[in-house]
């Protein structure tokens, strides 16, 4: 594998960056060349779990989406997975948004209950490149997991999807790498992702809590980096609340908002408007403990008794 990398002009142990796209079932391996990342190869993911959208909780059999990394301690060789690389789910963003889970891997054996599985020959190649980069001094290998290429056209085609706001949060990370061939530094801005462009390949890879910076130029379009200001009120209806899974936190809060017409006490002005209550319900009850306590008393009355669990 290192010989193949050298033939393509990559140095031994060069820094590595991974991108995963669920819809196309592809894993891209990018390696450093001339101070930027260049595509080394794309591999077919033979199996991943669930559907498009993020992972919410332990046991939901859903593969995650977001900004993750692999460290040297996350590499393992065993008979069960052949080769495996653990991604750090839940990361800081997931924990802040009450998402739970563990044991998310990129591995072999072509089977998945939440992981991303490759064939054994393919996982060997990816593993060897990641291992070489970490052994050469790269502190962690970034892994960006997207539902699909987050272009404006693709997002416009998915406006009715319940994960559209989350994907808009991730869009600046995708667009920055497409432009710079450097993955942006990720930050945690309250309960949302934020991204700042890199000037060089070395730098901080861990997600840090900070004020939310906006990427400049065309990426910093209000509709993309401030998704809650977009006109999505029409997407939030009582039918949405009835059809979603009451086991998921987002669904419970949506039911509360639709039934009560307000997600929080009137003390919080951002939640007072009944027309926006359902949209704000995702962050209001989580952000204010009083809202969370008040909302919890309504869940039992709103959720159907015979709701299907998974």
Question: What are the key terms here?
Answer:
5-stranded mixed sheet, single chain, alpha+beta, L,D-transpeptidase catalytic domain-like, disordered C terminus, 310 residues
Report on this model:
- By secondary structure, the chain is of the alpha+beta class.
- The protein folds into three domains: 2-148, L,D-transpeptidase catalytic domain-like (Beta Barrel), CATH 2.40.440.10; 168-229, no CATH class; 233-302, no CATH class.
- It is globular and about 50 Å long.
- The chain is 31% helix and 20% strand.
- It has eleven helices and 13 strands.
Report a brief summary of the structure.
31% of the residues lie in helices and 20% in strands.
Topology:
Layout: H1 2-7, E1 16-21, E2 26-33, E3 36-44, E4 47-48, E5 66-70, E6 75-78, E7 82-86, H2 92-96, E8 105-107, E9 116-117, H3 120-135, E10 141-146, H4 152-156, H5 164-180, E11 185-189, E12 192-196, E13 208-209, H6 222-225, H7 238-243, H8 249-260, H9 274-280, H10 284-287, H11 289-302
Parallel strand pairs: 1-10, 8-9, 11-13
Antiparallel strand pairs: 1-2, 2-3, 4-9, 5-10, 6-7, 7-8, 11-12
Helix pairs in contact: 8-9, 8-11
Structural class based on helices, strands and sheet pairing: alpha+beta
Total discrete domains: 3
**What is the element string, with H for helices and E for strands?**
HEEEEEEEHEEHEHHEEEHHHHHH
- Quaternary state, please? single chain
Count of helical regions:
11
**Topology, number of strands:** 13
What is the radius of gyration computed over CA atoms, rounded to a whole number of angstroms? Answer: 20 Å
CATH class of the largest domain equals Mainly Beta
* N-end to C-end Cα span: 41 Å
């Amino acid at each position: 594998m290192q010989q193949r990398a050298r033939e393509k002009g990559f140095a031994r142990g060069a820094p590595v960056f991974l991108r995963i796209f669920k819809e196309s079932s592809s894993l891209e391996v990018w390696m450093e060349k001339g101070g930027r990342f260049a595509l080394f190869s794309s591999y077919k993911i033979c199996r991943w779990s669930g559907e498009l959208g993020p992972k919410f909780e332990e046991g939901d059999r859903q593969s995650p989406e977001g900004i993750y990394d692999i460290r040297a301690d996350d590499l393992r060789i065993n008979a069960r997975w052949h080769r495996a690389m653990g991604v750090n789910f839940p990361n800081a963003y997931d924990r802040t948004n009450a998402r739970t889970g563990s044991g998310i891997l990129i591995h072999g054996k072509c089977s998945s209950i939440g992981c991303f599985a490759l064939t054994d020959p393919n996982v060997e190649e990816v593993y060897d490149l990641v291992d070489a980069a970490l052994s050469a001094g790269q502190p962690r290998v970034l892994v960006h997991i997207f539902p699909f290429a987050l272009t404006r056209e693709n997002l416009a085609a998915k406006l009715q999807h319940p994960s559209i706001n989350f994907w808009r949060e991730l869009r600046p990370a995708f667009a920055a790498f497409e432009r710079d061939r450097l993955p942006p530094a990720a930050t945690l801005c309250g309960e949302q992702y934020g991204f700042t462009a890199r000037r060089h390949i070395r730098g901080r890879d861990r997600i840090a809590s900070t004020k939310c910076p906006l990427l400049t130029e065309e990426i910093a379009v209000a509709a993309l980096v401030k998704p809650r200001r977009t006109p999505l009120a029409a997407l939030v209806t009582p039918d949405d609340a009835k059809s979603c899974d009451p086991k998921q936190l987002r669904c419970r809060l949506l039911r509360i908002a639709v039934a009560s017409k307000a997600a929080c006490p009137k003390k919080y002005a951002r939640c007072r408007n009944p027309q926006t209550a359902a949209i704000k319900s995702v962050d209001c009850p989580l952000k204010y403990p009083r809202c969370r306590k008040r909302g919890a008393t309504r869940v039992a009355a709103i959720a159907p008794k015979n709701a299907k669990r998974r």
